[in-house]
Input
Amino acid sequence: GESVGLHLPTLSVQEGDNSIINCAYSNSASDYFIWYKQESGKGPQFIIDIRSNMDKRQGQRVTVLLNKTVKHLSLQIAATQPGDSAVYFCAEGRGFQKLVFGTGTRLLVSP
Amino acid sequence: GAVVSQHPSRVICKSGTSVKIECRSLDFQATTMFWYRQFPKQSLMLMATSNEGSKATYEQGVEKDKFLINHASLTLSTLTVTSAHPEDSSFYICSAGRDRTGDTQYFGPGTRLTVL
Output
């Protein structure tokens, strides 16, 4: 069936390193993708989004890359900080605002 | 902008009782709100889509009579867990979309429900 999933459940990096979190999706009809950050006991926080007519979008310290050929989405975090430690979810937009979330990747940043 | 609040943040109730959770968009009008459930160390699972002034649309496997949703205004949606049981214990999160053309959903802080 259709799904949105992640390759790595946990990613450990050193402070100052660049982090890359990956996500695979299966529905080629999806046209909107979002990355959320969720800290323990809190709701998801919007990080960055991208539409299917783009392949790259940059924000502050974050970049999202979309490869529609292989149905792959990634989130790059530059100069990772301890405050970036959280679970990161990709979500796929299907239909009117309905989102399907991936399984999540835990990012652990060591000082 | 785009702040979504939830109340209460935590609730503990006895089995068999009903619990109401409120979701408010504080600085924008939300024609659509969404209710998710998240079990520990798992992803968010969409329960239902709440449309202002109309009946909610429930996802497959979600009992509409158990999880009552009311979206009475453009800034408020409520989820009532009726006759709660321990297996309903979970983290309930709402989100709101600004308008019908926008895709970004803004999430509330979540409500931790514990049913004893």
About this structure: The interface with chain A takes residues 4, 6, 32, 34, 42-46, 49, 91, 93, 95, 97, 100, 102-110, 112 of chain B (CB under 8 Å). Chain B has a mean pLDDT of 91. The radius of gyration of chain B is 13 Å.
